[in-house]
User: Fold these one by one.
Assistant:
Number 1:
Amino acid sequence: MGFSGFRVIKEALTGHKGWGPLWRDPAPRAQYDIVIVGGGGHGLATAYFLAKLYGRHRVAVLEKGWLGGGNIGRNTTIIRSNYLLPGNQPFYELSMQHWERQEQDLNFNSMVSQRGIINLIHSDAQRDSFRRRGNSMMLTGAGARLLDRDELRQMVPFLNYDNARFPIKGGLMQTRAGTARHDGVAWGYARAADQMGVDIIQNCEVTGFRIEGGQVRGVETSRGYIGAGKVGVAVAGSSGRVMAMAGLRLPIESHVLQAFVTEGLKPVIPGVITFGAGHFYISQSDKGGLVFGGDIDGYNSYAQRGNLPVIEDVAEGGMALMPMIGRARLLRSWGGLMDMSMDGSPIIDRTPVEGLYFNGGWCYGGFKATPASGHVFAHLLATDTPHDTATAFRLDRFARGHLIDERGAGAQPNLH
Amino acid sequence: MLIPHPLLGLRDAQEFTYLGDAALLNRPDPAAGEAGFADYVYLRDNPAGVHRELWFHEQGDRSWLVVTRNTLTHEILGAELARDVKLGGTA
């Protein structure tokens, strides 16, 4: 049954007795055409697009824990398409276009709010570089606005414009960017995929791949063997661990990124503000909490929690940028696992094992990419050819020297 | 995290910068060719569990250490001078 304003009113008047589970809880079948490993945003979106755009319905999504319990529930919910390089920007713009019609497509409230993102500028050189990025964004239709100091001051008067080290000279704005409700994204895709016949199997950990003669035949799981024509792995954060079971080493290190939320406050921050020079970014959730974060901790970790030095660093960045938040009380902090790839860009490609496909290396940009990642991964799984916007995300690009290095930082995962 | 520096005792991890897997000590022979160097530069074991890794004591004695650490718990199990490891002393 669909969601609508009418139905919300009807349920409110009848004691909310008509709501049921949003998806089934099926037992795994013996064989599927396509098995997706990982029931996070990307895995669920992949299953949804496989069924919707490519007519594949004998599809299972295997999740080791509960649906939405991984990185889709551990991010800062920002959506944007403000990249520079031709290998990246068209892909993220595809994602932005999906976000804009997400709720209508899924009939589910993902709370997509296009409140805009501003990257702050502190020097003439940085303005030049941001103007170039803005031009690159406009080439893909993403839109960009270069704000001078006065315009910026009218929008966000509370910033510390005269910081001695990083005086604020303006900003690059993407008005179409914003935030979305992270859980709602996972639930919306799960419900829509389930309605088209996809089996979503929770508490089902993949413990190995069955590979015969270089061809994948299925996966061993904690709920028994499941045969598969093709297997797509979308487990960013744990990619190294999972792909090692297929005998592959990846150009990826797993790192921890922390994020923070304060108590609920009245509306004060209009959109997303990023302070790259001070390793700090912030937005305000619909509940009023200030949601912010900074850099990764910088060492390999699978712990899903970080350490205090980075918390201090992020808090200092926040105080340098907007001293008014000094009185806000921190409610929670959490850490998510990041697939930090060697060039800071993702990988969506076939692997040396026939029938095994890989989607990972999202660094800390995975949430905004969720719809497009599902779309292009479904395209790859269904057609065996990369989607037009994802031709650069090759697994072998490192050995071939065709890196997509937005930061120009080289093979240093903890610097991306 | 506190790193047990072999010469200086327990030091705060904030004094160090991190490089990555200690396998980076084993630079391949020039004859290994492009494939060998692509493996060395880009591919990682990235284990969940015990990991041997390079830390540089940048704000200390500027020595390189090989730290053994559990990536699931952040527990530090030991530290050696990278020089000793490289020269085969305790590798």
Number 2:
Amino acid sequence: MSRIRFFAAIIVALIGGLVTTSAATSAATAAADRTSRYRIAMIVYRGCEDACRGFHDYLAARKIPADVEILDAATDRRRLLDHIARVRRDKPDLLVTWGTTVSLEALGPFDAVDPARHIVDTAAVFMIVSNPVESRLVPNLQSSGRNVTGTRYLVPVETQLKAARSYLPFSRLAVIYNPLEENSRLTVASLRRLAATEDFTLIERQVGLRDGAPDPASIAPLMAGIRKAGAQLLYQPPDTFLHIQRDMLTAAATAMRIPVLAAAEAPVLNSQALMGVVNRYYTVGQLTAAQAEKILIGKVAPRDIPIMAPRNFSFLVNMRVARELQRYPPMKVLRFAEVVQVGK
Amino acid sequence: MTDRQQQAAPGKRIASRLFTMAGIVLLLASMAFAFYSAYIFEQRLAPEIDAKSLAVARSLQGDIERAVGYGIPLDALQGMDQLLDDVLAGNPELARVEVSTTGGAILYQRQHPDADTDIRTLHHAIADGSATINVGVRAGYVRNQLLGIFADAAIVLLVTLLLAMELLPLLVNRLLGIPLESLAGVMRAAIGGDYSRRVAIGAGGALGQLIDLCNRRLDGLRNRASDMHGTVVPYRAAAVTDIRAPMFVFVLAEELSRAFLPLYVQELYAPIPGLSEQAAIALPITAFMLFVALGTLFAGSRVRRVGSAHLFRWGVGLAAVGFFGLALAHSLYDLLLWRILIAAGYALGTLACQAYVAEMTTAENRTQAMSIFVGAVMVAAVCGSSLGGALADLVGYRHVFWGSLLLVLSSWLLFPRHAGNGMADSAAADEGVAGISGYRLLLADREFMTVMLGAAIPAKLILTGSLFLIVPLYLARIGSDAATIGRVVMLYYLLMAFGNPVSAYLARRFGLGLSLVAGGGAIAGLGSLAFLFLDGMPALLLAVIALGIGQTLATAPTFALALGAGHRSVAVLGQPGVLAAMRVIERAGSVVGPLLAGTLLAAFGFQATLVIIGGIVAVAAAALPLALRRRPATTVP
């Protein structure tokens, strides 16, 4: 009797499984057979770099039927406004914005959206925004409260400093920043808070201004000043001006034998920053594409998708600078660090 | 029944022969097993350790090659000390790790601070041949692991043998000894012309047939001899040793929790106003000791009226309820209640066993028979503390109490059915009862009380305060599991069990009464001073071993010395009465001990508490000869 019941249960389970599988298959086929592929517009500020490539590769790997149109502002505000106008007109299935400037121009602050200026009726995903909450893109990281979601890319400053200390113990940390940029001011504010709890002295220097714009020529003299103040490490915040000047900034620091800890990856990958505790842009791009997948395939409303950050950060070490400064990373750091510029 | 002593002999002989044989078989089997496991272990362990050490070296090789590959010079690697220290910390079998150049110059080296000199070094070169990683394996590591296995095996062997020693005679007696003796008794009576008896116990096989035959023959004889109007007396041989098994099982139930009770209490601890946490944890032990003393005191005079079997039933009942509650306890308060119930049960149960011995013996052979009693308690303590600790690790504290419940209940099944029917002669039952006036007399007896205060009470103080309370708590603090605590406590009982006959012999042969009492007390106390120089397990082992040796030397002579010192009271109350009163008076130390230890612990910590209590005991012991010198008339009987 019990044996019969057992077989009956197996048969029911098999039939159930078959029905479910065929239903899922037909749904997938239906998705693949869509006559129109998803149209994604991506507005970038400085061309298609690693985050943009990570986004593309994720879509390809997941075989998501989508065409991504890259709209490059090439750091030009007028061109950016043109792209925004075009997206408002074309109404693609999804908009991806790159960077704080692009995201704010396209989507507006959450509490001051202007339907005449901002994109409101297209689902949007932002990436590479340093401080989405502080720059008022979203009210909190759980939900944007509107047709927007996104990803974070900065590792918390505290985590960056703690990781940096496992390489170079420091008690005097310097920071140079552009007072005109909100991102930089926010970062310096959190550095001030951490100075008390993490037990270090913060040496702050603002970039000099000339005609209301930051002056690249002011950097070299600042460097001499922070060296005199006894800085053991220089922190390069996520600052657009310094990002552009990263070659000059890191070269000047290295010449003064001050190692640089960068908040972003480019100064370590391409310039002379000694280390960076970062989320790789490529990884962030992949994660952003995963958010896009939730919206397009999963049909989840963007407001219901929290702003995500990659789970593990990368500890980048620039070996060329380490050799030049004769400050080799400890063996334990080498076990998990991503070493770059080995042979250069 | 004057032939009791002869009756006991054959069964005992069979049992002891069987035990010897079974013991030898057990011993050989256990030893073979221990050696075989050790052999297998050694065969597998040594290559295993070499393989693991080489894996460690390969991992280091990977680290170094990566760093060198990045262009870091071999002699400029950063954080190598930390890396190597981590390797040492994660691999206890390694004594040293170093990196040297091919030329032999040591670049980096770390070693254990307490590394022994006996090191076997394995070498492992890095790929480009520029350096060698040398891993030093402790040669003693395998040896130490083996020693640990042997120690465990020895303890298992010991407990197995002791259990076998307890259970085998029981089985032999029940199946063979008692039926045979009963048959012999009936036939002896018949030969003497008394046909009234009938064997009242069955047996299997040929023996059973024989008993049946004998009974039927006697029935036939009785029927034919119609002039015999006397009633038929069912006869069943009884021996005083019958009490040993139930006694053992009964005490074992309580001893199972010896090693971990303070830890169980600690789990249930909730603040009690006006009492430190440590004193609160001591409370259940104190309450237990207090109620055992009170129970003994008040039930003692009632033994005669109710009989030993009835009394034992009450003891089992109370203890069973107590263990049941203890397994389900949810706060310190109800735990206290359960412990008090168990204490009352324990007092009644042990008293019942003593009463049984009194019922079954005459005044002449009673003292010797009482040693059955002491022996059973000691063996139960040795087995209980180690078994209980190991069980607690396996199933958790609570579930061990279910085991205790089971043991208590089975002790009732083992209790001799024929006991406690008012067989006791009045003299026997009257013994062990000093009465209120008796206690008044003893408490006023200066010499007697000097011995009590100098030796008997401090002995109990350090036993319950240090061994029962502090030792489990301290060992748990330094990370020992319950099984280890059980073994440490067992060590004390082991020394007591095997040392007692030695000290009794010394006292008898050389008349060393006072010196043994004072010297033993001093040793027992001074051992705890080890904590002035040492710490952790070594210091604790020294203290426990000294306690065991000291008390085993002092315990038996203390009774004799007290009887001698209190000879005037003995003249009034009689020796058994004074001895019984002593057992109650010395419990003052048991009651105060845990509370004192708990309070000291809260104020000064573990080490200081052990040192202070040890100091008190040693000073009291040293003062005893001086205090007694004023009356050199003290004699040791």
Number 3:
Amino acid sequence: MRQRLMAAALTALTAASALQAEEVQDTDSASARFFDLDEVVVTGVRVPKLLKDTPVQTRLITMKEIQRSDATDIQDLLTQEMPGLEFTYAMNQQTHLNFNGQGGQSVLFLVDGERMAGETMDDVDFSRLTMSNVDHIEIVKGASSALYGSNAGGGVINIITRKAVKPLRVAADARFGRHGDRRYNLSLTTRRGRVSNILTGHCHTTDNYDVRSAADPVTRVVTTIYGNRVANVTEQLGYTPVDGLKLTARAGFFYRQLKRVEDTPERYRDYTAGLRGEWQISDDDMLNVSYAFDQYDKSDYRRISGLDVRSYSNVNNSVRALYSHTFGDSRTLTAGADFMHDYMLNTKLSDPRRSQNSADVFAQYDRIIGEKWEAVGALRYDYFSDGGMSRVTPKVSVRYRPRHNVNIRAGYGMGFRAPTLKEKYYDFDMAGIWIVRGNPSLRPESSHNFTLSADYTEGNYHVTVSGYYNDVHNRIATGVPYYLPGDPHQLYLDYVNLRHYTVAGCEVALKGRWTNGLSASLTYAYTDEHLAEDRDGNTINNQYIPARPHSLTARADWEKTFREGYTLTASLNGRVLSSVINVEYRDYYDIAAGTVKVEYPAYTLWKLSVSQTLTRYIKVGLAVDNIFNYKPLYYYLNCPLTDGTAFMAGVSIDFY
Amino acid sequence: MPAAAILLSACEGILGGIYDEVPDETRPTVSGELYIDASDWEEWHYIDLPSLSDAVAADPDYNTSSAWQTYIIDMTRADEDDGSGRGIYTYWYDVFGEGISRREYRDFYPTAAQAEPERWTFAVHRNNVRTNGCTVAATRYGSLDELPDDDNYYKSLEFKGDEWNESDVWIDQDRMLLGIIGNQGSAVNTVLSSWLRIEIPPMPPSFTPDSRVFVIRLGDGTMGALQLADYQSAAGVKCCLSIKYRYPL
């Protein structure tokens, strides 16, 4: 009898435990769905992992978030979604990214894992990265040079494009706003048996318009906000000859025209092409090989003479191979190699035609240790032919899951950036102000980057807390302007390696999502960027305005389906940025006169948008950007380029 | 093999043919046209229309590319100020704020008079033009061929002579980043100088040409016509002036 009772008790206990485990599992699944934790990401370790399982903290921007933002390009999207990030402007309004204290040269932008050619003021052309056919975006902060090589010292932003899933899908949208804002997108997707095809087109135009600052600005201001005419066409053909082998061919053309001067518009063109093979050799083996071509050109069109004269061309030809093998369920070895030929034509170089080859090999070992631990280590060797430069970079990441709904991640990575051909061979007379000169003896920039993060999911809530510390050595930048002996009239500004400096920061992100259709998020970022000095301890001519210490983004979305075919969505999102102080020379021609602290003011911007899905296929939307009608008192180089409230209206058709 | 050839050619890019090559800077002599590289901040270039007309009449193949004379702007401080106002004026311009229309006087020092040839009709310095006692009027015509033969038309035009100026003839950009620019005190014909306007902001400056025909009336009462056809060199250097002319009218 006693044994029966014990057996019954054990059975009941087991059943209760199983029930509880099932409930936990159900709750986990719901939470994972709520917060997209079951989405597959690839950027952090270069092999597919669920977002909740990846040992490298990854910020995911989903397709739904992209669509709700109504962003035109990556600059538009990241401005809305990411605190600790700011797009500022150079004197002639070229865009520069500050990403957690890292400049554009230290943040690697990838499209489906491929690098982009071309730069202006150290940044890729963000208008190339349109959001019309993006599946999702993966953002990995901190050094990833051990997996991606040079330029990945500050982070990686990987844009993953949509794949052809449906037999036929036709999507088109149009949006209209102030200042001649007209945007059109078209996407045609087909899939028949083993063949798929995606054709996309994007066109966006905005006009120039003038803005007026108050009297006596303390530093440089913008007076005209330049519009663009952008066209972008991409074509991607997929073929699966046998199960497990997928071949993809792609091509693209991008064109942008900007009119700073009416009769000499600036033109930017880009040509991309690529071939990719993804072979699932067995359940445990995967091989990816790819070839990528990317050419970015700049030219000036002189209307009077009818000449379209090219001044810049950067051509990248890359070959990549990536192999991964899984040992059982817990160990994965990934190895790869890349080769790139980098060609540059730039009339501002001492010799306008330059090229170099770069090659690398890398390996990564990923091990899941029990149910709670996962560790991954990587090592990479990079070689650059110009100057025979080489570097080995390591990376280690650990994930610890003490409870089913808690993840703690820690990582160390070495960042690395080889000097570019521009930084080595530039020779440019900048409107008579000074001559900017390259420096062939530049050393590679390197950094030690430490990250720590924790995320916690409970029911309708998800919290992430993260921090980083980046110790940068030999940062490459323009240094202190100087005169040559015997020539008191001509200033020179050379590229130099700077004294080491640090950037540290943290971020807290809170997300909530409820079954009544309401969701909200609040993310705060703190960035402590210590301004760099040259090796003699002099304050340098800081080309770019440093990161704002405090920034916050907030978002609330509500969605309700009233009847089949009619869904109403309302979104409010905003950002708050603190002021920032930059140290600037009192007198650029007399460095001894010292520096002055210039404060760039705080601001906040909010956007309200409402959209209605009228049938299964048609959606109309209205948006009010800058709803509090914020107008900068002074249009400084890091102020938002707005002259007040802007209304936008759009319509989209998605047929599938 | 073809794939290898494509890859090899792609190393330095594709579709280079859609761009124009920068033509040879040496412009061919074109009858009725001058090409003057007036981009140097420290030079005046002098043209004498009657002499030019005589030379072309005597030799139809006359090389107009040498039909002007260049004189350096001497910025050496004079020992004494003769009270004429000749010299170097330093102004501060609100380059990064309201623009160069807002300016403040900062400094002056005297120099010798600007050297010039014995005979000249007009002189160019970047976007500035001055004349040798001439007056200038703007027409509504966009081509020299459209100019009417009717004398009454020219009588109806509003001619304007040179005016003294201390802040438009920019000769010293050493401290431009601070908005400090040195100017030569000089007479300037504002009507003819309007054929190329420089605006700051934006930065870098914008250049706005006016391609209308201008009529210049010389001291002896004869008239000529001038038109700025282009202001850039083949390499894109600003203030390299292609000037169409006709003299006498």
